[in-house]
Amino acid sequence: MANLSTTYLGVPLKNPLVVAASSISSYIDRVKMAEDAGAGALVIRSLFEEQIQLDQLHMEDVLSVGSEGYAEATSYFPSVEHGGAKEHLMWVEKTREAVSMPVFASLNAVSPGAWTQYAKQLAETGVDGLEINYYVVPTDPAKTAGDIEQTLYEIVESIKAEVSLPLAVKLSPFYTSPANVVHELEKRGVEAVVLFNRFLQPDIDPELETLVNEMVLSNPIEMKVPLRWIALLYGRTKLDLALNTGVHTGRDVVKGLLAGATVVQVASTLLENGIPYLSTMLLDIQNWMDEKGYDSVDDFRGKLSQKKVDDPFAFERSQYVKLLSSAQ
Ligand SMILES: Cc1cc2nc3c(=O)[nH]c(=O)nc-3n(C[C@H](O)[C@H](O)[C@H](O)COP(=O)(O)O)c2cc1C
């Protein structure tokens, strides 16, 4: 039987199928279910900067009765009775202890100061690595792309100076030059990039004339953007490449590995099909490998990356021009 084992962030995994940061890690029984279904590893949902603020606001609230701030911040986490940073750290520790598969913590903050201290505390929970989710909506017209990227690099440098655990950075797909950002992160000692984060965009209800914010799960078509970038970057960076967004089946995982992914992260498909669906995905990967005669994931990883395909322009602009000009 084909061997699915791989190494991600320097940690041996029994297979490259990783549960992405999501509500799956909000309950220990779900985390155990993921392990039982064969997950290679799991990323715990993020500690958000708003939770860090929540703790600080709570402290201010205790000191100044009547503050509105705490109640407002609590509304970000309505389902979490005690949604502050301390509770999150305790949760990460509890999750780490509940399973033996590798577990990574995630930090989602935007201001440089907040990160270092909490990255350090997350590292102390015993997790195997950290994922940094840098998500800003840049609305200030005076800020350049370079300014925003610089903030990311400063955050990474400050965490790297304090934390020895391996670091993955989960990136947005909206950089002008994703390859350059990956290169700059590599220079700063990051071990992996997660391509890409998926954003929940607000919608508008024309009847009610209101904004609508709802959780919409991903669609398989969304996988094409990360697939292309994994294929473009494979062999051009030493970083591990985690493919994320739109992966729904074992066949999708195979596509990601052929493009050059080190691991593939999934959330929506498990929320849609149930966590035990992981075992179906793994079986499909195994069957495909057996059919094709591959003994290990390394035998075919990156086989269809830009560096290795016959038509290296397939991932670039020429295909776009060709397809659009031949369309009826
Ligand atoms: C319910 C839910 C909660 C999520 N929470 C987090 C989170 O805490 N941190 C994070 O970085 N991503 C979070 N995500 C994003 C996922 O990690 C992932 O990037 C995204 O869902 C795309 O992968 P998918 O197509 O497999 O769903 C969440 C996604 C869902 C559906």
Write structural notes for this entry.
With 328 residues, the chain is an alpha/beta fold. The chain has one domain: Aldolase class I (TIM Barrel, Alpha-Beta Barrel), CATH 3.20.20.70. Helices cover 41% and strands 17% of the residues. It contains 12 helices and 12 strands. An 8-stranded parallel barrel has the order 3-4-5-6-7-8-11-12, surrounded by 7 helices. A two-stranded antiparallel ribbon has the order 1-2. The protein has a two-stranded antiparallel ribbon with strand order 9-10. A hairpin with a 2-residue loop joins strand 1 and strand 2. Helix 8 packs parallel to helix 9 and helix 9 packs across helix 11. It is globular, with a radius of gyration of 21 Å. It starts with 5 loop residues before the first strand and ends with a helix. About 7% of the residues have low confidence. Bound molecules: flavin mononucleotide. The site of flavin mononucleotide (FMN) has 22 residues, from strand 3, strand 4, strand 5 and helix 10.
Task: Summarize the SSE layout with pairings.
Blueprint: E1 6-8, E2 11-13, E3 17-22, H1 28-36, E4 41-48, H2 49-63, H3 69-74, H4 85-98, E5 103-108, H5 112-123, E6 129-133, H6 145-162, E7 167-171, H7 178-187, E8 192-195, E9 203-205, E10 210-212, H8 224-233, E11 240-244, H9 250-259, E12 263-266, H10 268-273, H11 277-292, H12 317-326
Parallel strand pairs: 3-4, 3-12, 4-5, 5-6, 6-7, 7-8, 8-11, 11-12
Antiparallel strand pairs: 1-2, 9-10
Helix pairs in contact: 5-6, 8-9, 9-11
The protein binds flavin mononucleotide.
